[in-house]
Amino acid sequence: MAGTGGRTPRERYRAQVRDEAKRLAWEQIAAAGPSALSLNALARRLGMTGPALYRYFAGRDALLAELIRDACRDLTATLRAGAAAGAGPGGLAEALRAWALAHPQRYFLLYGTPVPGREAPESTRRVTGEITAVLLDACGAAGPPDAPGGSPAALRRALAFWTRLHGVLSLELAGHFTGMGFDPAELYGAETASLPGEEAGRGAGISGDRVPLGGL
Amino acid sequence: MAGTGGRTPRERYRAQVRDEAKRLAWEQIAAAGPSALSLNALARRLGMTGPALYRYFAGRDALLAELIRDACRDLTATLRAGAAAGAGPGGLAEALRAWALAHPQRYFLLYGTPVPGREAPESTRRVTGEITAVLLDACGAAGPPDAPGGSPAALRRALAFWTRLHGVLSLELAGHFTGMGFDPAELYGAETASLPGEEAGRGAGISGDRVPLGGL
DNA sequence: GAAGGAGAGTGATAGCCTCTAACCAACGAG
DNA sequence: CTCGTTGGTTAGAGGCTATCACTCTCCTTC
After folding, report:
1. Which nucleotide is nearest to A40 (CA to C1')?
2. Per-residue pLDDT for B212 more than 80?
3. What are the pLDDT digits (tens) for B10-27?
4. How far apart (Å, rounded) are the C-alpha atoms in residues A23 and A17?
């Protein structure tokens, strides 16, 4: 959300309404999914009629695209903050998990079911690229220093890191673990620790390898 | 699809129309996503008017639920066939990947973004349970034989197997690997081979461990 | 301070959707 | 042959996206 940083009263009012609309839109999405996002209902909750919202957003798709872009920025900022604070792969993984648990719908809007026709716009692609870049950087930097800055091995390691995190997270958020009687956090922690550098017989791994397996 | 196994002509006709409707529904979903599934458009393509379809399906949600159930059954049958043919975890993983690549929309309907309000009905939950059971069985059976039939360690191993497969698959199907210049199949293969029993310094793993890492 | 213009909001409307109700035609069992 | 079941129709209520023309109200400019 861009906040109310406008200069003229009109700009401030406009930004305020836009922010409130987006806030309510997230509520609606959280309540019934992205497909249930309705400009009409949104406008009603804002105290105006349907067509008025078209002064603020070009249409339903534009609003959704903006929400996705905001979510991207939010996650990027979160991860960048973690990285800037010196968090390693494990720290970033925890930050990612915390963010996803706090905003499941945001996470699914970024990494969930894609809409076949709808290609992600350039701006979004760039931001998601940044997100993976942060993860890859942290992971490559934490691994054994082979050609610092992107050896194939580092890329492979980072990709495995990313996909494992996403595998646990997305299944957990989708509720596929409910009733299985175990703690997803523990699995996530094990997956987080399992990776950077330990495969291919490189040894016990770098970042701890706590309770390697079977510790349930 | 139940096929045309009815006895009376009416039943056969009914089954035929239902199957054709579901086929077209899958086409529509593949073209523009599940949210674009429209009973009206479907009926038009079937050569009838909208309300006529309500003789065959109780409503849009019922049709979608049936499609999901069919997808579940299909995947279950595929995996069961693989398991019956003696495929180990690696074989099942390959079967899963082949199925998902052939029917991405089916995969996402099962494991993609969940609709917040909509709880999966009992029938579906039972079938998805079977799917995971097949994977868990194969994985537990292939691991080192500790308390055959579901030790905590086997469960943990199987869960990691499942989540790793899903992590690579879902990101690949969603197109998040496009333009990264690497082969998802290779990553998937490495993840498939990385798991059953090799962690915690148990050795080189059971099912091959081909090009363990860094081989990109 | 008055005039003009930009911007916010409204009602009307077209066209799509889901789903119900009432009605009609045709098939098949008795 | 008769008549109930079944498949299909049109009509219609209500919701949605989106556009258009219009009003009103501020803010700017003279």
Report:
1. D16
2. no
3. 999 999 999 999 999 999
4. 10
Top residue of A113, A166, A186, A202 to mutate, by most chain B CBs within 10 Å, is A113
Report CB contact under 8 Å: A31, B117.
yes
Alpha carbon distance B51, B44 (integer Å): 10
Q: Which fold has domain B71-216?
A: Tetracycline Repressor; domain 2 (1.10.357)
Q: Which residue has the tokens 């305020």?
A: A16
In chain B, domain spans = 1-57, 71-216
How many residue contacts between A and B have a Cβ separation below 8 Å?
A: 162
- The encoded tokens of residue A57 equal 């957003």
Distance from CA of A57 to the nearest CA of B (A): 21
CATH code of B1-57, in short, is 1.10.10
What gap in Å lies between CA B109 and CA B120, rounded to an integer? 11
Q: Mean pLDDT of all residues in chain A?
A: 85
Strand D contact with B10 (CB < 7 A): yes
pLDDT: which is higher, B50 or B127: B50
pLDDT along chain A (216 residues), means of 10: 69 97 98 97 98 98 97 95 92 97 97 88 83 82 57 85 97 92 94 69 34 34
- Which residues of chain B lie closer than 8 angstroms to A201, CB-CB? 204, 212
* Nucleotides of C strand lying within 7 Å of any protein CB atom: 7-12, 16-22, 27-29
Q: How far is the CA of A164 from the C1' of C10 (A)?
A: 52
Half-sphere exposure (CA, 13 Å, Cβ side) for B185?
4
